[in-house]
Amino acid sequence: ALTRSSKTFYLPPTERVILIKLCVFFAVLAEQTEFSSMMMWLCVAGFFRGIALSNFTLTVSEYSSLEKLPAAFGWHMVGKGIFVLFFGPLIGAIRDWTGSFPICIHAQSICILICIFAWLIEFLLKYLKRKEKNHLPIAIISSQICRHHFAMIFQ
User: Which of 15, 44, 57, 94 is 20 to 30 A removed from 6 (C-alpha atoms)?
Assistant: First the structure.
């Protein structure tokens, strides 16, 4: 069985799927006009948002040692706070400029999709880098095989 370290990828494949589903649920939520259907989609989107947020904190704990865990969580919370301070007003400005809550919710989904795209690029670059390290040219492989066989013949 293939096992992968949690340090290899920042965003596991299941997390990417959860975030994509979250974007879809937000898109459906944004277009709801009836109260009961809006509450149902809020519950579904909130459930998936909770899954996504809990996985981010688990990722922080997997990346750091036990001694550095409090500092890692502190920096994680500081980073989240700075992100909210800078991008929260931007989302509010989108709502003010357009006068539409659905467009504001779609803008949040676009931000999530941009993050997923950036993580996919990071994953692809790490994959290609790892593949290059494991790749040996045919000439080197064949020369190593020849040396090994000649060494066995002349011993």
Answer: 44
Tokens 């009836």 sit on residue: 34
| Best CA proximity match to 29, nearest among 21, 82, 134 | 21
Report d(CA 18, CA 21) in Å as an integer: 5
Give the integer Cα–Cα distance in Å for 61 and 113: 24
**Exposed (0-12), middle (13-18) or buried (19+): which is 11, by Cβ within 10 Å?**
buried
Q: What is the pLDDT of residues 86-141, one digit of tens each?
A: 888 988 898 899 988 888 888 888 888 888 888 788 778 887 887 776 654 544 44
pTM for the whole structure: 0.61
| Gyration radius of the chain's alpha carbons | 24
